[in-house]
Request: fold
Amino acid sequence: MEQQYDYELEFKVRDYECDLQGIVNNSVYQNYLEHTRHEFLNDIGLNFTELFEKGIVAVVARADMQFKTPLKSNDKFVVKLRAEHEGIKYMFYQDIYRLPDNKLCLKGVITTTTLINGRLGVSTEIKDALAEVKANR
Amino acid sequence: MEQQYDYELEFKVRDYECDLQGIVNNSVYQNYLEHTRHEFLNDIGLNFTELFEKGIVAVVARADMQFKTPLKSNDKFVVKLRAEHEGIKYMFYQDIYRLPDNKLCLKGVITTTTLINGRLGVSTEIKDALAEVKANR
Amino acid sequence: MEQQYDYELEFKVRDYECDLQGIVNNSVYQNYLEHTRHEFLNDIGLNFTELFEKGIVAVVARADMQFKTPLKSNDKFVVKLRAEHEGIKYMFYQDIYRLPDNKLCLKGVITTTTLINGRLGVSTEIKDALAEVKANR
Amino acid sequence: MEQQYDYELEFKVRDYECDLQGIVNNSVYQNYLEHTRHEFLNDIGLNFTELFEKGIVAVVARADMQFKTPLKSNDKFVVKLRAEHEGIKYMFYQDIYRLPDNKLCLKGVITTTTLINGRLGVSTEIKDALAEVKANR
Reply:
C-alpha cells in the first residue's frame, strides 16, 4: 500500500531556496529528496560518502517528480520515503507533505542504481540493509 | 520526429555545480533545463519575469528526467529543446548532450502549465508564440 | 564581549552542499548565515518576506567571512549571531562552530541596511526590535 | 592601479539565481567569483580539479564582498579579476560590472591559500603561473 513509508524527515523552507515567484524553486525539491535518501541510508547503517570511498557509487538513473502544491517561505514540511529493491535498481518513492495540514506538495519516484568500481552491479550492503527494512515493516 | 528541436543553448559546467562524487549534482540539471526554457521563451518574445508580473505564472507540473551520462568539471554541453502545446499543458522535451562528442547525458520531459491570476488556464501569449514556433519548423 | 550572542541555530550539512573537494562549498556558508538571520528576525517578530511585502527591503551591503575549518558531509554545526544597530546599518556578527567539539569554522561580519520604498533608511520595526534584544542581553 | 585586471569573464543572470526579492541572491555572487577564478586558472594552465587530484588543495581563507548594485533577471555582467601572490596567500581582487552600462555591482577581495598534502604551503605551479601573469601585465 502506497501510504506505507519507511522513513520520514522534517524540514523548514529557507528563504534562499525561493525564487522570484516567491516559491521554492523546482530544483530545490531534488535537494530535499536527496538529503532525505542519504539520511535514510545513514539511519539503516549505510553512509553515502563511506560507500563512495569504498568504490560503491550510488547514482540516480531517473527522477520523476509531480509538483502538486508549491512550498513557500516559512513553510514546514516532511519528506516521506519508501524504498524497494528491484533487480539492479533501488526505487525510492518519495512524497512531500506540507505541515501541519499534510497537503501533498510533491510525488516523486527516484530510480537509483549502483556502480561498483565503475561497473553496474548490486551492492550487497545496500541490498541486505533494504531487505531488513522490508522485513521490519 | 524526436531529434527535431526548436532551440538549443550551450553551457560549461561550473565547479561549484559538482558534488563530492566529482560530478554535476542531479538537482543542477533542473537548473540547466529551466534556464534553457527561459532563454527559449525570451527568444520567442516571452519573458518569464514579465509574464509573472502580468499575473501569468508558468509552473512546472511534472519533471521526468533520465540521467544517462554524468557531466564533470570542465565539460561543455548543449541543452536542446522542443516545445509542444497540448490542451492546458506546454510540454518541453529537453535533452542534454555533452560536447564535442554529442554523448547523451540527460533525457527530460518537463510538463508545464500556467496559472493566470491564480487560476489554471491557457495563456494566449504563450499559445500563439508556440504555434508560430511550430509553423516555422 | 564578542562571545555574547543573541541567537543560535543548529544545522546538519547536507551532501548536496559539498563540492568536489568533499567539503561544504564556500558559497553555501552564506546560505547558512542568511537562514540564521531570517530565523533570528522571525524569532524577534520580524518576518523577512512580510517586511519585503511592506516595502522594507533588507539588503546585505557587505559580507566579510573568514573560513577557519571546513565543514564536511555529516557534520553538525551551530550558527551563532549577535546583532547591533549602528546608524543606518544593522551589523550581524555571525560565527559557525562545528558540533560537538565547538571548533570555530567561520567568523563573519555581515553589514545590512534597509531600503524603504526604494530609499536607504532606518526601519523603525527593525530598530525597535533590535533595541529590545539589546535591553534583554 | 586598481582598474588593471588580469582576466575577465562574461555571464548572464539565470532566473533560478534570483530570490524572492527578485534579485540575485547574495550567495550566488560567490559562485560567480569562484567560477571566474577557476576559469582564470584554466586560462593560465592550472586546472582546479587536476591540482586537487595532485594533492594541491586551493582553499578560500577569507571572502570580503561589498554589494553595490543588485543584479536582476536577464542582466548581463562581467567579472574582472586581478591576482597577486603575497607570501603564502594568493589574493584575488574581483569586481563585477553590469553590462552594457558598466555599473559596479560588487567589489570583492578573496584571499586564498593552498594545502599541499594537507599542510599549508606555497604551490610552485601556482606561484610560477601567477609570476608570469604579472610579468605580462
Summary: Chain C touches chain A at residues 14-16, 22, 31, 34-35, 38, 42, 47-49, 73-74 (CB under 8 Å). Residues 19 and 25 of chain C are 5 Å apart (CA to CA). Chain C has a mean pLDDT of 94. Chain C has one domain: 7-135.
